[in-house]
Amino acid sequence: MVKVFPARLGGPKFIKDVLAPLPFLKLVPTGGVGPENAREFLEAGAVAVGIGGNLVSNKLVAAAAFDQITETARACTLAVQGI
């Protein structure tokens, strides 16, 4: 697998464009992936996505906002599943 960072710069279109001539690559976009675009990256051909800061921000951890982190994780899971 090849980590593509930061994915926000090229977006899902970049993943699709890279895979057009190199369909055997296993790309994993990270950096800028969240529930709003995770499914788009997968539909563009990514084999997985990495979600870090958009899933668990330092601000939410410091505020002990674990319910909000759980909701974000749920939203990411649903987005990846295409629900």
Report on the structure:
With about 80 residues, the protein is mainly alpha-helical. The chain has four helices and two strands, in the order E-H-E-H-H-H. The chain has helices at about 5-20, 40-45, 60, 65-80; strands spanning about 1-5, 25-30. A two-stranded parallel sheet has the order 1-2. The longest helix is centred in the C-terminal third of the chain and has 16 residues, at about 65-80. The model has no long low-confidence stretch (mean pLDDT about 95).
Compute the number of strand runs: 2
What is the spatial order of strands in the main beta sheet?
1-2
How much helicity do the residues have?
40-55%
Oligomerization state: single chain
Strand content: 5-15%
Largest sheet: 2 strands, parallel
Order of helix and strand elements from N to C terminus:
EHEHHH
Distance between the termini: 26 Å
Output the keywords.
48% helix, 2 strands, 4 helices, mainly alpha, 83 residues
Topology:
Layout: E1 2-4, H1 7-19, E2 27-29, H2 38-43, H3 58-62, H4 66-81
Parallel strand pairs: 1-2
